[in-house]
Design brief:
Elements: H1 4-23, H2 30-34, H3 44-64, H4 69-99, H5 120-134, H6 136-148, H7 154-183, H8 195-219
Helix pairs in contact: 1-3, 1-5, 1-6, 3-4, 4-6, 4-8, 7-8
């Protein structure tokens, strides 16, 4: 029998993240995004959301089919990708939104949920959307990891995690550079810098993801 607490967490997480993704279609900037190479998947936020959604979907499968060992292995590997990625997205997004909004928001295309110039109902909608995209993934993944999953082994942390972060960081850097070569712009203003600075940004974010994974695993009881 599936644990009701885990089943509830995974079901709610999948629902909230699905709502967040579908709601991006209502944003004024969606029309512009759809004309761009890569569409919404230029954004690290959407890639993190997709990885978190897949991880929680695998978790639901494990809840319903607890004897399916292969699915548990896939879910555990997926969590190793989704957890640090979602953590990085949350840290970067909320830090820049609060202190340096011009580095994260595309001018003329996106109105932050914290803006007082928006009508009250529009602000509420954007607050909910913000939370479902930039907070719900990392919170639900952390809850799943700490309450329902065992910590990763020393070998997985020292060898597996760096390889996963290197692969993901290289993938996103290559992908976003490829898209920008067609779009002549980057999905985030902070990437509108010379190539050597962008390499530094990609490296820093990858290091932050790896450090986050090590910290979360160390804090796991």
């Amino acid at each position: 029998m599936p644990r009701p607490q885990a089943l509830f967490l995974h079901g709610v997480a999948v629902g909230v993240m699905t709502y967040g993704f579908l709601s991006t279609k209502t944003l004024p900037m969606d029309g512009w995004i759809q004309t761009q190479k890569g569409g919404q998947f230029q954004f690290l936020t959407i890639q993190a959301l997709a990885s978190a959604w897949l991880t929680m979907t695998f978790s639901l499968g494990c809840d319903l089919l607890p004897s399916f060992a292969a699915l548990r292995a896939v879910k555990r590997a997926s969590l190793m990708i989704a957890l640090p990625l979602s953590f990085v997205v949350s840290v970067v997004y909320w830090s820049l939104s609060l202190f340096f909004p011009s580095l994260i928001q595309l001018p003329g295309l996106f109105e932050p949920s914290l803006s007082s110039s928006l009508p009250a109902l529009a602000r509420i909608h954007l607050h909910i959307l913000d939370l479902s995209l930039h907070l719900a993934p990392v919170v639900t993944l952390l809850a799943d990891f700490f309450f329902f999953k065992r910590k990763y082994t020393k070998k997985q942390v020292q060898i597996g995690a760096p390889l996963v972060v290197l692969a993901c960081g290289t993938w996103y850097a290559s992908w976003v550079e490829y898209c920008a070569s067609y779009n002549h712009t980057f999905p985030y203003p902070f990437l509108e810098n010379p190539f050597n600075i962008r390499v530094g940004i990609y490296t820093f974010i990858s290091f932050l993801a790896w450090s986050c994974f090590r910290l979360m695993n160390a804090l796991h009881p």
